[in-house]
Task: structure prediction
Amino acid sequence: MTKAIVTGAAGRMGSRIMSLISVTEGIEVTGAVEMKGHSVLGKDIGETLGLDKTGVVIEDDIKKCINKGDVVIDFTHHDVVVDHLRIAAENDKAMVIGTTGLTMNEIESIKNLAKNTRCVLAPNMSVGVNVMFKVLEYAAEVLGDNFDVEIVEAHHNLKKDAPSGTAAKMARIIAESLGRDLDKVGVYERKGMVGVRTKDEIGIQTVRAGDIIGEHTVIFGGVGERLEFIHRAHSRDNFASGAIRAAIWIINRENGLYDMQDVLGLRD
Result:
């Protein structure tokens, strides 16, 4: 039985993860964490989910429950996730990170800390999105420089980071397949007389509206034809299910940094 500690327990993702774990075989929630001052602190997770009491109380510090679990599932905020991983590594606990908006320095810290534990880091835990990652890699290799690439992502109006981690991952996969440096060719806004579109640029545009859970469209535009690859999330449960799958998978792996391509067996 995999024992999971869920951080951000009262958040949109944390609560869905705990709810799905309650009906999933082979895994259980044995620890839960929320930020200091939150109204759910000290409550049984069953109370917050509308279920029977479980005996698992929500703590304000991951250190208070880190030894109760095998793996930490983290969908919190980029400025705390590195500390959570450091504590997990110090206690030989695995970790699944779905938190987005990470800076390059934070990603480097995660890579270094993962040398001392097992960690899955993915901007999107959806099985469908990760299959799409693989398809985009193949499509870009085949289509090459003859097709313009544009990515449009849409999310709810409460999302704080832009573009989404998923869109950024898609852009980087495509850029690498085309032999381009995304930091040089990524175009995140167009306004006014921007001139003719350059051959190498990869457009990444952002929409924030209403309660859109997540939608990503990748356009390969050629002369006389175009291909569009679209993924629409209708529920956060697909992200939660992927995170749970990753948590069960990572337990017995060797130390290192993995992603959902490894979890799903899509790695070449």
Summary: The two ends are 30 Å apart (CA to CA). The chain has two domains: 2-121+236-263, 127-233. The longest strand covers residues 148-155.
